[in-house]
Amino acid sequence: TVDTSHEDMIHDAQMDYYGTRLATCSSDRSVKIFDVRNGGQILIADLRGHEGPVWQVAWAHPMYGNILASCSYDRKVIIWREENGTWEKSHEHAGHDSSVNSVCWAPHDYGLILACGSSDGAISLLTYTGEGQWEVKKINNAHTIGCNAVSWAPAVVPGSLIDHPSGQKPNYIKRFASGGCDNLIKLWKEEEDGQWKEEQKLEAHSDWVRDVAWAPSIGLPTSTIASCSQDGRVFIWTCDDASSNTWSPKLLHKFNDVVWHVSWSITANILAVSGGDNKVHTHSPWHGGHSLLVFTPPTREGT
Amino acid sequence: MEKMSRVTTALGGSVLTGRTMHCHLDAPANAISVCRDAAQVVVAGRSIFKIYAIEEEQFVEKLNLRVGRKPSLNLSCADVVWHQMDENLLATAATNGVVVTWNLGRPSRNKQDQLFTEHKRTVNKVCFHPTEAHVLLSGSQDGFMKCFDLRRKDSVSTFSGQSESVRDVQFSIRDYFTFASTFENGNVQLWDIRRPDRCERMFTAHNGPVFCCDWHPEDRGWLATGGRDKMVKVWDMTTHRAKEMHCVQTIASVARVKWRPECRHHLATCSMMVDHNIYVWDVRRPFVPAAMFEEHRDVTTGIAWRHPHDPSFLLSGSKDSSLCQHLFRDASQPVERANPEGLCYGLFGDLAFAAKESLVAAESGRKPYTGDRRHPIFFKRKLDPAEPFAGLASSALSVFETEPGGGGMRWFVDTAERYALAGRPLAELCDHNAKVARELGRNQVAQTWTMLRIIYCSPGLVPTANLNHSVGKGGSCGLPLMNSFNLKDMAPGLGSETRLDRSKGDARSDTVLLDSSATLITNEDNEETEGSDVPADYLLGDVEGEEDELYLLDPEHAHPEDPECVLPQEAFPLRHEIVDTPPGPEHLQDKADSPHVSGSEADVASLAPVDSSFSLLSVSHALYDSRLPPDFFGVLVRDMLHFYAEQGDVQMAVSVLIVLGERVRKDIDEQTQEHWYTSYIDLLQRFRLWNVSNEVVKLSTSRAVSCLNQASTTLHVNCSHCKRPMSSRGWVCDRCHRCASMCAVCHHVVKGLFVWCQGCSHGGHLQHIMKWLEGSSHCPAGCGHLCEYS
After folding, report:
1. Residue of A24, A99, A145 with shortest CB distance to B342
2. Percent of chain A residues past pLDDT 70, beyond the cut
3. Does residue B472 register a pLDDT over 70?
4. Quick one: pLDDT at residue B447?
5. Using CA atoms, how far apart are residues B212 and B203, in angstroms rounded to an integer?
6. What is the predicted ipTM?
7. pLDDT at B396
8. SS3 state of residue B719
9. pLDDT digits (tens, 9 = 90+) for B533-578
10. Do residue B301 and residue B391 come from a single domain?
């Protein structure tokens, strides 16, 4: 158990790329970063800047430095950066009309791109263009009523890498998935002209989609997305045939309560699911999709 | 967004029914007030003053109080209040400083009753005494508060705040003589109505103007104040010094604050700029509003709960010229939207999980907020179902290890560091890796390595201590040695005529075969029995005579001229392209129809996912019998690699790919291989295993992958003598024909780590230069350059 000293509910906790730091964010408007190496927990930074509950945090790939994005009920997205050991606000994006619920960094191969999903139904994409400048693209009305989650597809190159001489940037197809209050999961693809287009609509949930997680493509022959919803169901979506782009859902489990989060292990062989019962269930979605372990946080009795 | 629920509440005698609804007003509203029957609402503004009946489905205009052709400034209302005891009595505060009372009981169209023109500037607020029918209080921009007795023509008393304008005045609900007033300078004053000479108490509540205040309807002495500093504060006024109990931060300045009836900790707020929404806060959860009404398109100017004992109906007027009735049930509840849980998979397979602690846990274990410590009774109170969340919210953050006792992904790191991928014969690599896997408790992987070894190493080359692995428990040295002898002998005996010739005779070889299989079976049966005596003895005796031949088959002693001796391809470094020479396709044809083939195939297939040492042994046995060429297993190995990759063990897939090299490469399509490589390299880099990652890149057969570490590796070097760029390869300068890589300190040619200054091109052994720089910052070559090393 990590003592976060947050004064209100924690909405998200994310480990960085190397698994050495943990960022948490809370209703108390703060974002905290802990060093969790060797089982320790040292508070490195307490980031204040949001004026509302902070819903989600996301670490950027370390090749861009130590960068953390956070999104909040105050309609803002803040990008924090560590410079010489101190964390500071490096950019503030205030382009949404309502609470920003989810942030997710694109695979590092694409450059520094952040997708933000908001309750105003829009998804905005922030691309770093150098010298502290960010270019904003916005997908309006991506999800009616609101967007709850965004998750990038792993970087996959059409065709073989071999066609591209080294040094030249391969032509990636950028994709991400989003889940919203319209009970849908949508897949978005960047067109050649740089515009984002809805590529696919995945329909299976009967209530708000709370989280989507695109599986890391380590060793997997197929594209896989996990989604969870207010309706208590967790679906695994697979796309076996990339050319026809048809996705088929498989019900992993039906819980009796809202399922808030799905998270893949880095090798994508285990899916962790957290539900309204305050427990974490881990599943192996492959080979039968059996439940593995259930974790229950210790009660604070006697502390 | 159709959310039209209907709520009916019975409140002793009267029944409230309604739904979320709104009606258009002719002009922007400045203030609203509800009649005590909860059935009518008055809306006042600069150019509006109307009474609406609140019906079930809609608002119905009942009375327009703004009469006369040329309405006077007296009708331009900043505030309006409906008497809570007398249904016919209203008071308004006019922007010209006049306080007007209205009597709805008057028969004429003009209901205006009394006019008090005592204030010099805009009157911001009027307030009736909660229990005294004739007492009216006003607060004005001119800094004065006045108390009127409606039975008299002018004010009874005047209170001077001794400061700038008064923004709000409110009679205490419980204390008959007390009222609070708030000021533009951030102060709150408490007055006794009988003592106009000075205030009872004064304190600074906010930074900047305090726009509003509201006494708690039940809790004596709780006063909520709202200011331009975007904060709502709850004060306990019963103590000697006003004590701040709660503080709510909103996103815009707070214009109005109203406690929610029947919900002790709830209050509604609205802002005077930027934000058009109305929020209901639980003061114990100061960061997230409990409910939010988003109907208005412009600033909300007036809010009022419809009935003093009903928590579900809220009325509001706005600058957008609309009057709304909000149902709490229909409010959007940001708390409900909020994720109460955070979940993340760490790199090492650990899970970070933050979850909301239930109220129960909070009650038993945690200290409640300081503000609540005074009222522990709260926790025992049955929670109001109308409250969207139960009390305090806090989260516990736990980090779980997914593999109890183990380090999660620790095996990955260990394996990556310890696997041998090249530089040794295949068999040794397989053995080594099997051993590594077994030591890490990954038996299936270990078995796979052993299997690979058996499949791909021609039997004659199987070094000793082989079956040791497949049997599993690392037995004595003697027995496995004998076993492998036996196998070596047995396989050629069956497989080819020429080898048969070398054995002492047909009958003899048959016996050997039988014996050895018996041995194997014995071994299987008691795999745990280390060095069981019977077969060992037997073998020792039996095979003795063949030792010479066996040595001939050993790689070291193999005669190159011997045509049947299969050269160990594994002896070469794997990255070299070697033509795979299977022991002979004719053997396959020989035995293609033998029942052993299908049997072994089935066996191998069945054991691909979870094998035991039993089946493994029988397979290897079958293999030797049938002498299948490694090619035969290509498909199988491919499936096996796919299996591991799908399991998330891309490490295994890549390691096998590298170790087997050409043997399997052709069976797996280039793209998949590339994908595995990049995935594995990615993982290695995440674990900061740079050296392993580099080795994998180097060993990879895929061009796209191997070029990964060839990016930006060019070094531009200047000759240390003539200072010109070195154009040719090597360390000899074209121009001065001297070796450029001389150490400036010891004047020897540097081999290994060479460090040099980019300014003057001089450098030398890293150690020497470092030592030199401790004493001097000038170049050791004596060129006078102040060297810089980064």
Report:
1. A24
2. 84
3. no
4. 85
5. 15
6. 0.79
7. 66
8. coil
9. 444 334 333 333 333 343 333 444 434 444 444 444 443 434 444 3
10. no
Domains of chain A in sequence order:
148-159+172-290 (2.130.10.10)
Say how many domains are in chain B.
2
Give the minimum alpha-carbon distance from A198 to chain B in angstroms, rounded to a whole number.
23
| Positive or negative: CA dihedral B672, B678, B682, B683 | positive
Q: What local confidence, expressed as pLDDT, does residue A151 receive?
A: 93
Which of chain A's residues have a Cβ under 8 Å away from the Cβ of B650? 218-219, 267
Residue B225 has pLDDT above 80, yes or no: yes
How many beta-carbon contacts under 8 Å exist across A and B? 239
Least confident of A130-144, B259-273, B380-394: B380-394
User: Could you give the percent of chain A with pLDDT greater than 90?
Assistant: 29
How far is the CA of B143 from the CAs of A130, A140, B121, B162, B582, in angstroms?
A: 55, 50, 9, 7, 104
Residue A3's contacts (CB-CB under 8 Å, 6 or more residues apart) are A41, B397
pLDDT at B527: 40
Chain A residues with CB-CB distance to B648 below 8 A: 218-219, 265, 267-270
Residue B733 marked ligand-binding: yes
Give how far Cα B565 sits from Cα of B110, B459, B626, Å. Answer: 123, 11, 18
Scored b (16 or more CB within 10 A) or e, A166-200 reads eeeebebebbbbbbbbbbbbbbbbbeeeeebeebb
Host H or E run for residue B492? helix B478-495
Report the gap between the CA of B268 and the closest CA in chain A (Å): 17
- Flag whether residue A266 sits within 8 Å of chain B, measured between CB atoms: yes
Name the minimum distance, in Å, from the CA of B376 to any CA of chain A. Answer: 18
User: Cβ of B353 and A280 within 8 Å?
Assistant: yes
Cβ–Cβ of B399/A36 closer than 8 Å?
A: yes
Tens digit of each residue's pLDDT (9 = 90 or more) over B101-143? 999 988 888 888 888 998 989 999 999 998 888 899 999 999 9
Question: pLDDT: is B466 or A136 the higher one?
Answer: A136
In this structure, the answer to whether residues B298 and B229 fall within a common structural domain is: yes
Give domain status of residue B558, yes or no.
no
Q: Do B361 and A299 touch (CB under 8 A)?
A: yes
Of A15, A28, A166, the CB nearest to B711: A166
* φ and ψ of B633, to 5 deg: -95, 0
Which of the listed residues B319, B336, B353 is the one where a domain comes to its end? B336
Six-digit token pair at A210?
């709370």
More confident residue, B393 or B147: B147
Question: Is pLDDT of B517 > 60?
Answer: no
Global confidence as pTM: 0.65
Q: In A, which residues are within 8 Å of B351 by CB distance?
A: 263, 272, 280, 282, 295
Structural domain includes residue B584 = no
Domain that holds residue B231: 21-67+205-336
Q: Are B344 and A162 an interchain contact pair (Cβ–Cβ within 8 Å)?
A: no
Q: Is A34 helix (H, G, I), strand (E, B) or coil?
A: strand
Does residue B432 have a known ligand-binding role?
A: no
How close, in Å, is residue B767 to chain A by CA atoms? 29
- Considering CB atoms only, which of A220, A221, A295 is closest to B353? A295
Q: What is the CA radius of gyration of chain A?
A: 19
- What number of other Cβ atoms are within 10 A of residue B32's Cβ? 25
Report the range out of B13-17, B482-486, B643-647 with the highest average pLDDT.
B643-647
B746 annotated among ligand-binding-site residues: yes
Percent of chain B surpassing pLDDT 70: 62
A110 touches chain B (CB under 8 A): no
Whether B91 maps to a domain, the answer reads no
The helix or strand, by DSSP H or E, that contains position B616, with its residue range, turns out to be helix B613-626
Across A261-265, B434-438, B538-542, B686-690, least confident range: B538-542
Q: Is some CB atom of chain B closer than 8 A to the CB atom of A44?
A: no
Residues 6+ apart with CB under 8 A from B450: B430, B431, B434, B466, B469, B470, B616
